[in-house]
Every structure is written in C-alpha cells, then in structure tokens.
Amino acid sequence: MSGDPQTASLLDAARRAQTLGFDSIWVGDSLLARPRHDPLTSLAAIAVAVPDVELGPAVLLPALRNPVLLAHQLATLDQLSEGRLILGVGIAGDTPAIRSEFVAAGVPFDGRVGRMMEGLRLAKQLWSGEPVTWDGRWQVDQGVLGPVPHRPDGPPIWLAAGADVGIERAAKHYDGWFPIGPDAETFGQRQKLFVDAAVSAGRDPAELTTAIYLTVAINDDPETAEASIDNYLQSYYGAPPAVMRSFQACRGGTLDDVLAFIRSYVTAGADHVVLRLVGDHEAMLRALATHRDDLAVQPFT
C-alpha cells in the first residue's frame, strides 16, 4: 500500500514477528479501495514461509466472492498451513469506496449480509467432502469438494461486527466475535451481549473466541503519536479521522500508554488481540514483544 509491490519485505516482517513471539499474522482485504495484495494468496505464502503461527484475513469480505471457489481456496490454504487458518469475515461498511468495489465485482451491495451467511453455509457444507446439492443464490448439484480443510470442520470463523444484531449473529452462528472497537468500557458491555447471546443459542461461550482489532502508535511524544494515527486514518480510509475513531479503537502515546490501552481490552474480555501498528513497525514490534508478559494476553498478534 506504500507503493512498493515487492513481497519479500512483507514475508520478512512476518518472520520477524514470529521470531519475536507473536502468535499470528493478519492481512487486510480490498479489491480497489486500498491497493494491496490479494489476502488469500498472501496468506498462502506466509503459511509456507512462517511456521508455528496462526494466520488469517482481518477481515475478508466473503460476499464479494463465489462461495464454491472461496471454499476451495480456503480448504487449500488450511491444508497449506496445516490447520493454522482463522477466517476473519465481515460485511464491510457502507462507504462510496466499498460500494464501488461491489459494483466492480458484479455483486449487489444490498443483501450482502444474507449473501455472506448463505455463502459461508455453503462453504461449510462443501468442506464436509460429501456430495452437496444447493438451491439458493448459487446452484450446486451433487458437488464434491477436494481437498477438504486440514481441520475436520474447516477453519474457525470470527465475525467482525459492531451492532447488536451482528454480535448476536456471531454468537449464534460463528466461532468468534472480532470487532474493531469501540472504547474498552463499551467493548466490555458488548462482550457480555456476545456471551449472553451464545448461552441463549445453547452454545458454550468458553468454546468461542472474543478478539479485538486495535490500532496503535508508540512515540515518546503522545501528540505526535496521535497525529500519526490521524494521518494514517485519513490516508487509509479517505474519511475524517474523528469519524473513523468514533467506531475504531485507536491509541497513540508512550509505550506505557499503549500497554495500558491494550490491557484495558484484555480486562474487558478480549481473548485475542490483533494490533495494527502505525509508524516504526520494527521498533514497535520489539517494544511490545518485550512487554508481552505485562499484557497478560494470549495469543499476542
């Protein structure tokens, strides 16, 4: 996204993160709105190049993809990684850039929730390895997918959601809830909603995962750190930083500030913390890795 399309530096960064003790590697998904490599192809390379870490998209937009092709790609990726794939998914926000992506892909923007859910149900059916007949948005007649994923039931699916209905959807149908914010207090309240919805659906919350996606910048000057995040958000989303911060969890500050910020989400119920770093990635990776035990979070990604 910085204008350098070379992949060697990306793989090197993934290796360094693994060496420092991070437990998973994540990549974003965008067709046209934000120039970047295809996430599933990138993850396939990471799966081979970097052992012993989990990996996944944060997050994939399944509605943009044919679910039969997607099921095949994900099964292959899960085999390449020997069961290390986590499937972060979402429906995408309603922005002009995202709507343009749907238009370019020939997919209706309206109805994307139902399209995502049906597509994932179809994928899971295909992952069984048994003949599948499907009569819905897509037509399958006794189709058999091979190979099936490394994990018998396929990779765990974590749903990115901020609204109550989305959180309840994650609790009822998927393996985890994977929001991008907001503040830790509100996150804790929504975590309780996630747990209660899982119990109401007859599921054991202990078998589900609550993750959180945080954007952080570390600098001895907190104002400089916060400004770097604002600049990043403006460039990345093409929207006012204040708007993005209203529903995304971001913190710029000293190392102690950022550690306290991360810890507040762990205290509020996060099982898995995913960090998007703004600024000097190498220095921040090392600083955070050094203080991993201070965070009391597993995994650390």
Could you please describe the fold and organization of this structure?
The protein is an alpha/beta fold. The protein contains 12 helices and 10 strands. A hairpin with a 3-residue loop joins strand 4 and strand 5.
List keywords for this structure.
301 residues, alpha/beta, TIM Barrel, six-stranded parallel beta sheet, two-stranded parallel ribbon, 15% strand
Secondary structure elements and pairings:
Elements: H1 8-20, E1 24-27, H2 39-49, E2 54-57, H3 67-80, E3 87-89, H4 96-105, H5 112-126, E4 132-135, E5 139-143, E6 157-159, H6 164-173, E7 176-177, H7 184-200, E8 209-218, H8 222-237, H9 241-245, E9 250-253, H10 255-267, E10 272-277, H11 281-290, H12 292-295
Parallel strand pairs: 1-2, 3-6, 6-7, 7-8, 8-9, 8-10
Antiparallel strand pairs: 4-5
In short:
By secondary structure, the chain is α/β, with parallel strands linked by helices.
Globular, elongated, flat, extended or rod-shaped: what is the shape?
globular
Main β-sheet description = 6 strands, parallel
Number of helices: 12
- Radius of gyration (CA) equals 19 Å
CATH class of one domain: Alpha Beta
Give the rounded overall mean pLDDT: 95
